[in-house]
Amino acid sequence: MQHTIRRFERLPSLRSSRQLCCALVAFFGVVLSSTVVADTREITLDSLGPTKEHKQATEVIAHIMQRYHYSQVFIDDALSDQIYDRYLDSLDPQRVFLLASDIAEIERYRLELDDVLRKAKLDPVFEIFKRYRTRVEERSQYAQKMLAQEFDFTIDESYTFNREDAAWLPSEAASDELWRKRVKNDVLNLRLAEQSKEDLTKTLQERYKRMERRITQLAANDVFQIFINAYTLSVEPHTSYFSPRSSENFKINMSLSLEGIGAALRTDGEYTVVQRVIAGGPAALSEKISAEDRIIGVGEGADKDIADVVSWPLSDVVDLIRGPKGSTVRLKILPASAPEGAPPSVITLVRDKIKLEEQAAKSSVVEVTRNESTQRFGVIDLPTFYLDAAAMSQGLPDFRSTTRDVQRLLKELTSSDEGVDGIIIDLRGNGGGSLIEATQLTGLFIKTGPVVQIRNADGEVETEADTDPTVAYDGPLAVLVDRNSASASEIFAAAIQDYRRGVVLGEPTFGKGTVQTVAPLDRSGKLGQLKLTIAQFFRVNGDGTQHRGVIPDIVFPTALHSEAQGERGLDNALPWAEVAAANYKAWSASNANYAQMQSLHEARINANESFALLIDELEAQREARNERSITLVESERQEEIVAQSVDREKREALYLKALGVSSSDDEESEDGVVVADLLLDEAANILNDIIDFPPTSKP
């Protein structure tokens, strides 16, 4: 063990934040949760127990976390308290399996898990898991038995499907009652989807069997991984452990990350949820899948049955969705704004490699007409910060990079006789990428100076700077961001804001201001690997982007629906912090009157019916997320579905009408998907306001 630790201490990536950050392709502002990869055979309860490799891995992980993690959190009773709750939440997040009597028995371990980590004696971890597994097996068998009974859907009762804040079930009778309602709700959902009694019974029988099978196939390594991640996530949300088998799966996922449908997925309760849609992939190009949509079924090809994937482990769902380029996959989707029990939609996608040209920067022009005068604004859409590092290292003169592409687009937009009056950099949905490119892209718009500061775990602060005095564009500039703009996007937007070089518009950004690295725990790979946070980004004014993100100069009304999203919505996210300001010179001596711009913006959107409909849609999504229970009366459920469907169709019709387009003649719309970009149009309006009301001083 000592040899392993000394080897880790020699890793240069943990000692030089500048070397690390310049080489890294930054993690994209999302939580990369490790996936437990179950075995394909049943594991007997007697065989479940800690191994010598688990003991070794625990010792190494505990040392690394306390010495090299950016937070350097000490293992004590306070941390044990958090680990205990998170371990139980990892096993039974909806509190539908374990009973209050089970919790009373294992409560003695609440303040002993720090000793478990320090001494690497993991027996309590497996004792807790075995009790949980027993309860899952009991509930699966009970649910299958309940399918034989006839349910009365006229009885006035409801099912609480979201129990994450509920008390533990007080008795086995209470558990039976909850699961009776759960099965009844599952049956009703499939009845309303017009499945026959025979088909829905078969679907649910397999669902409940799979729930049990998944648990009985979890081996000792899987249990160990769940527990260690309860520890790492109690420290910070971007730190996680991969067992040897999960490490291999992680490598495979990364190597195939440019193939498939182009969507990052996560698990939320029983559902597989779309975390983000990747630019250039089939999902993004279809415009039929959005973040927070739930995937409840997957079918191969155009003819095969769609498999019910509710309660499936994420790794199995991913395996089913993944396939060779050119093949077809069908997904059964519950939209983000659809409440529990709403009818799903089925979409068909052709698997493909993510088209890199779709991820590259591209330009367009938006026009604003006022008082018979038209202003033209160039838009540069930037889905990610990319760099062909291999071609660059080989000295190839035509290597692809964000900065090179944007520089070319700026020249095209400004050099013609009808050059644009301003530039909008669109970073919505841009999760980050190359730190080098974030720095160099900033350099296209400023003369010289620092762009971002980086502090490592030892408190040392280093700076990445633009040293090229050439300015590619010095005209009016806006940066459009949203809740999913993260990491490198936040570095660029913050620098533009701090230098007063342009106006930042939209929603507060994601708030991921940390740097991660992945390190093996031993040479052989038998102990797995650890992804941990080792540094933090800071703006040139000294403020952190962590947690708060970048607050726009002019905030759009959609920001009201993003308060709990991003880094600030993650448990144990590192708090906002600050360092000393770097030595930099602002572009102008004073800002534009952003208070006045905000007033003009609000007056404009208050008169725009389309904005009101956009807010209505976001509110519908918020209400769907906040629902806790649902009626089990079939007639009432049918009425709700009809009302929701009518309401949605009405919103879509009014939305199109507000844009001056009817659904019948809108050639670029399909199934209510509107191509017009309200937020981009408003960004152009705001930049036009700034031109009309310029600041008192010039560059």
- What is the approximate shape? globular
Radius of gyration: 27 Å
Mean pLDDT rating:
84
Q: Under the CATH scheme, which architecture of the largest domain would be assigned?
A: Alpha-Beta Complex
Beta-strand content bin: 15-25%
Task: Please provide the count of β strands.
Answer: 21
Number of domains: 3
Provide the low-confidence segments as ranges: 1-34, 251-258, 658-675
What is the first-to-last residue Cα distance?
Answer: 59 Å
Structural class: alpha+beta
The largest pleated sheet is described as:
6 strands, antiparallel
**What do we call the CATH homologous superfamily of the largest domain?**
2-enoyl-CoA Hydratase, Chain A, domain 1
Number of helices: 22
What does this structure look like?
By secondary structure, the chain is an alpha+beta fold. The chain folds into 3 domains: 33-237, no CATH class; 250-353, PDZ domain (Pdz3 Domain); 361-515 and 531-591, 2-enoyl-CoA Hydratase, Chain A, domain 1. 40% of the residues lie in helices and 16% in strands. The chain has 22 helices and 21 strands. The strands form 5 sheets. Strands 4, 5, 6, 7, 8 and 9 form a 6-stranded antiparallel sheet that branches. The longest helix has 25 residues, at 634-658. It is globular and about 75 Å long. The chain starts with a helix and ends in a 7-residue tail after the last helix. 40% of the residues are buried. Mean pLDDT is 84; it is low at 1-34, 251-258 and 658-675.
